[in-house]
Write a structure and sequence with these properties.
The complex is a heterodimer of chains A (399) and B (383). Chain A has 399 residues and is α+β, with helices and mostly antiparallel strands. The relative contact order of chain A is 0.10. The mean pLDDT of chain A is 94. Classes of the chains: A alpha+beta (399), B alpha+beta (383). The complex binds flavin-adenine dinucleotide (FAD). Flavin-adenine dinucleotide sits at the interface of chains A and B.
Chain lengths: 399, 383
């Protein structure tokens, strides 16, 4: 057992810090600091991805031969943590974090050769077409059909909650290729161009007034069988593997540290009704301490999970997802206190990338209400808090 | 003790509910929110015709002289239907402060308000007040023929639509700060209204007092009288926000149970999963606990009981925490669909969160409770 970073890790950390210092422009940093969601806004995410791609750091988890890095687990954690700390925007995960590893594991040589570079360069923007109106938690009950027609499939059905479909050009979908066998057995994983004939993307306005999700409709959409990833009817295995990448490969505590840093900053600027700074207020600082302690417990749990289960996170990802998302919601709620009477102000445009106009109230708290609202979704998407607990009950406790 | 509404109160509840059911479905509300006009003037006129705008005012002022119980009944329904029309701002805050003053213009002004022709806003709290009534920084200086006002009032709901605003400021008299309240027409030179839309579908503004010159006749009240007006007005207001929460909680519970009974996953209604059942039962428990304190505080306020303030603080704390928990559970149980603007659930959540921070947070009202309870239970105290 050992907590210390090696000399090599310290050197690496300093290299990352230096790079971030040089590369994060003020508008990128502002955008990263004022994130309202697990996603950065599209423009800043793509701008930052371009900078990282040039440096070779856009997809740390990929093998070097595909444009990834040879970083150790520790180095990946250091990188994530330093990026958050510096206020870097997050990259959209659908291509780099989700589809990339799937293609590397299940894709044909042609798919890897063609698609991976386009993900890194930002030429292709992918979205994830899993959920359907009738298939949320019970993903295996999905209904979208793919019927073979010569070398093609004909797709019919609809996907919902598809994040950033309105900004993407491609979607990976789970579809039914066999309706007669058990639900999981008849599913395939297929890649679709969003500009194919018969695809319609309808944006959904979220409770914070922004569009992140969409419903995507497919009406007789023709797709070549070459676009299957994995074999026909083996999509469930691919999908499950992807869900693990979705749930793992994320550093909850680093994101929470950033939220806590914002709270601390505002607590040093804002005063209570009694006229002293929140940071000196015994009640508030106790509430903050509670959450900081929870963050520490999460941090070392995540470190343990990452060190132990390299490549095979299993049910522990459920633990981390529940603890991480629920804690981040508590920090959101604490931040509401600091924003106080300015909570109701709708100033979404002031949160956009490159915004230079005026706004009302403290800039450091501009995102608080939107972040609180948006983050309610974190215990719903990617396997809800209830589903994660069901998984742990079954897989860990054997109940 | 008796916690039943009397026949008249039941009738009032029934007629407000029936009116809103017929005229205020959620789709229509959303159309109004997204339209160019802040609220529905026709609906406001109808409410005037129904006499509801006169409820909290004395017969002398042309009103109906209803008590806090009747107002609670109305506000529960306003909360349940997510009504954005400014009952709270014009009637409770502006009208509430005005009706407690002795200004000669009071009756005329209130009569116009009751007939639906006049809108108002109360501009007291500032960025640093955080619910503390005594904590403002706007300044009034005495001039030859009146006063000059300087400062900034924050998040003044309904200010963009108000014909009149009541503004507070501190006047330094012989080294002492004297609280003053002024009644001003909203188009007074120097009064700058920086308007914006709010998360909860309404319109509010930062109100800048850029050397507003007012003559002496605009002074509504000062000193301890002004303070009492504000204290009583905000105590009424806090209770009615709890009543609004109450209506929202009930509706959230109803809609959530309904949805959980219909929505199927894994071949069964999600309402059949015990973990969700328990969560809905917790919503129910929270709703009933909050209701008890709301009733108790409202009755204490009607009786002008010495511990009414204590109960109002308690009701506010309980109502805010319960309403937040209920709304968050409602979102969680609905799943993805609740994170969209299309469903009412998220709009309840927004209103609840915003309201819970407008006139002091939970932490603030816990402190107020603590202070009042120390006073009451101190040796020689009132208890
Ligand atoms: C912001 C956001 C972004 C998203 N992005 C994407 C995306 O990019 N691509 C994509 O494919 N999907 C996406 N989703 C969809 C997401 O994965 C689903 O919302 C999620 O799977 C839950 O499904 P549902 O919303 O239909 O809720 P339901 O499955 O209907 O669940 C409703 C409630 O029932 C509970 N429940 C369900 N089953 C059980 C059970 N067995 N035991 C106990 N409780 C249960 C749930 O926990 C929840 O509280 C996104 C969702 C959101 C909110």
């Amino acid at each position: 057992m050992d907590l210390a970073l090696s000399a090599a890790d310290i050197a690496f950390r300093d290299e990352v810090r230096e790079f971030l210092k040089q590369s994060l422009t003020p508008s990128l940093k502002r955008s990263g600091d004022l994130m309202t969601s697990v996603f950065s806004n599209f423009e800043s995410a793509m701008a930052w991805q371009a900078i990282l791609a040039e440096k070779g750091w856009a997809a740390p988890d990929w093998p070097v031969e595909y444009g990834g890095t040879d970083w150790t687990v520790n180095q990946k954690i250091i990188y994530l943590k330093e990026s958050k700390r510096a206020g870097a925007p997050s990259l959209l995960p659908m291509g780099i974090q989700m589809l990339g590893p799937i293609l590397i594991r299940y894709g044909t040589e042609a798919q890897k050769h063609e698609l991976l570079p386009r993900i890194l360069s930002g030429e292709d923007v992918w979205c994830q077409g899993y959920s359907e109106p009738g298939a949320g938690s019970d993903l295996a009950s999905l209904k979208m059909r793919a019927v073979a027609d010569g070398d093609d499939y004909i797709l019919n059905g609809s996907k919902i909650w598809t994040s950033f479909a309105h900004r993407s050009n491609k979607i990976f979908c789970l579809v039914k290729t066999d309706v007669d066998s058990k639900p999981q057995a008849g599913i395939s994983f297929i890649l679709v161009d969003l500009d194919s004939a018969g695809v319609t993307v309808a944006p959904i306005v979220s409770i914070d007034g922004e569009v992140e999700q969409c419903q995507v409709f497919f009406e007789d959409v023709r797709v070549s069988k070459d676009n299957l990833v994995g074999k026909e009817n083996q999509g469930w295995e691919v999908a499950k593997c992807l869900l693990e990448f979705e749930r793992g490969g994320y550093c909850y505590y680093a994101a929470i540290e950033k939220q806590l840093a914002q709270v601390r900053r505002l607590a040093a600027e804002e005063k209570t009704a009694e006229g002293w700074f929140y940071e000196l207020d015994p009640v508030f600082s106790t509430r903050l301490a509670e959450l900081e302690i929870e963050k520490l417990a999460l941090e070392f749990t995540e470190n343990r999970v990452n060190c132990l289960a390299e490549g095979k996170p299993g049910a522990l990802t459920s633990l981390v997802k529940v603890a991480g998302t629920e804690l981040s919601q508590k920090v959101d709620a604490l931040a509401l206190e600091l924003r106080g009477t300015h909570l109701p102000l709708l100033q979404n445009e002031a949160l956009s990338y490159g915004f230079e106009g005026g706004f009302i109230g403290s800039e450091h708290g501009l995102n608080i209400m939107n972040a609180y609202l948006n983050n309610r979704a974190s215990t719903i998407y990617g396997g809800s808090a209830e589903i994660q607990r069901n998984i742990m009950a079954k897989q860990v406790l054997g109940l | 003790m008796n916690f039943e509404f009397n026949e008249e109160q039941k009738l009032l509840q029934h007629s407000v509910e029936a009116f809103l059911r017929d005229n205020y479905d959620f789709q229509r509300r959303q159309q109004q929110v997204e339209s160019d006009t802040p609220f529905d003037q026709d609906l406001w006129r109808q409410c005037a015709e129904l006499g509801w705008l006169g409820l909290p005012f004395s017969e002398e002022d042309g009103g109906l002289g209803a008590s806090a119980v009747e107002m609670m009944i109305v506000f529960e329904q306003l909360g349940r239907y997510l009504v954005i029309e400014p009952f709270f701002e014009t009637l409770v805050l502006f009208g509430g402060a005005l009706k407690r003053s002795r200004h000669p213009i009071r009756s005329e002004c209130l009569q116009q308000l009751i007939s639906g022709q006049l809108h108002g806003a109360l501009a007291h709290f500032e960025l640093h007040s955080r619910g503390e009534i005594g904590s403002i920084e706007s300044v009034s200086t005495t001039t030859d023929d009146g006063f000059c006002l300087k400062g900034c009032k924050t998040t003044v709901y309904n200010a963009p639509e108000a014909d009149f605003v009541i503004v507070s400021a501190l006047n330094l008299v012989r080294g002492e700060e004297l609280l003053q309240l002024f009644l001003l027409p909203a188009n007074k030179p120097g009064l700058e209204i920086e308007a914006y839309q709010t998360t909860d579908g309404r319109h509010a503004a930062e109100l800048h007092l850029n050397n507003v010159h007012v003559d002496a006749s605009c002074l509504l009240a000062e000193g301890s009288e002004a303070l009492a007006i504000l204290r009583e007005t905000y105590d009424d207001a806090l209770l009615l926000l709890c009543a609004e929460h109450q209506g929202a909680m009930e509706q959230l519970l109803r809609e959530t149970v309904e949805y959980a009974s219909e929505r199927k996953q894994f071949g069964q209604a999600i309402g059949s999963f015990q973990v969700l059942q328990h969560r809905m039962v917790d919503m129910y428990i929270a709703t009933e606990l909050a209701r008890s304190l709301l009733y108790a505080a409202t009755l204490k306020s009607v009786d002008q009981s010495p511990d009414a303030g204590l109960f109002i603080a308690a009701a506010k704390v309980k109502s805010d925490t319960c309403a937040k928990a209920v709304a968050e559970s409602a979102v969680q149980i609905h799943g993805g669909i609740a994170t969209t603007n299309e469903l009412s659930i998220g709009h309840y959540l927004k209103r609840i969160i915003v309201v819970s921070h407008l006139f002091g947070s939970t932490q603030y009202h816990q402190r107020r409770f603590g202070k009042l309870s120390r006073q009451l239970f101190a040796p020689g105290g009132m208890a």
